[in-house]
Specification:
The structure is a single chain. The chain is an alpha+beta fold. The chain has 2 domains: 2-76, Nucleic acid-binding proteins (OB fold (Dihydrolipoamide Acetyltransferase, E2P)); 79-200, no CATH class. The protein has helices spanning 84-100, 108-123, 131-144, 162-180, 189-200; strands spanning 2-15, 19-26, 30-36, 53-59, 68-75. The protein has a 5-stranded antiparallel sheet. A hairpin with an 8-residue loop joins strand 4 (53-59) and strand 5 (68-75).
């Protein structure tokens, strides 16, 4: 595998003393897990953060080998991670993507939608400016993974206010938890519940 591409970091976990295993969402190859040497060091720690966009050079000698990745920061979400609501939204969007998408299967529509969602979270003046994109992303994720009929067939209702958005998010919770997250040990839905609670405080 040899790939040079922009990528969205959707997960990162420590590996050994200084390295990181990063899950990188690319347009061409979908989600790719890769070894990032020095990922916990001073230079790369701010780069390997879920939500960041990086320029990734990914290489592996065979399809069965864990690829090595060299990363350069393209867009940082760091300034928004100290804000409770944007940080919760970024955490959930990345966590559900990393947890549910099979590796090395391209999902170009999801890649574009996640990038647009993260941009909206970071640049909209309030949650009202990005909550519709969040609902659209969850609906698209269900549809792309084969559960569109159970989530309303991909139809995105118009959203008048945050109260209505919360109602739609609540309806989407069951299919996401049942069909996408059901067999996972990690409580990925905890990130969604935290986001939902923070949105409710604004209503």
């Amino acid at each position: 595998m040899q790939l040079t591409s922009p990528a969205i970091v959707v997960a990162a976990r420590a590996h050994g003393e200084t390295a990181v295993i990063a899950r990188l969402f690319t347009h061409e190859a979908g989600v790719v897990a890769a070894y990032v040497a020095g990922g916990r060091g001073r230079q790369l720690r701010p780069v390997v953060i879920p939500g960041n966009v990086v320029s990734a050079e990914i290489r592996a000698k065979s399809d069965s080998q864990l690829p090595f990745a060299r990363l350069e920061l393209a867009t940082s979400r760091g300034p928004w991670l100290s804000e409770p609501l944007p940080s919760a939204a970024i955490a959930w969007a990345c966590a559900v993507t990393a947890a549910t998408l099979p590796e090395r299967n391209p999902y170009p529509a999801l890649h574009a939608a996640l990038g647009a969602l993260l941009d909206a979270i970071c640049h909209a003046p309030s949650a009202r400016g990005w909550v519709e994109a969040l609902i659209g992303y969850e609906t698209l994720l269900l549809r792309e993974l084969g559960y569109g009929a159970r989530s309303g067939g991909g139809h995105r209702p118009e959203i008048a206010d945050l109260g209505q958005a919360l109602e739609i998010l609540d309806r989407l919770e069951r299919p996401i938890a049942t069909y996408l997250i059901a067999d996972m040990r990690a409580d990925v839905m905890a990130a969604r519940r935290q986001l939902r609670d923070r949105l409710a405080r604004m209503v």
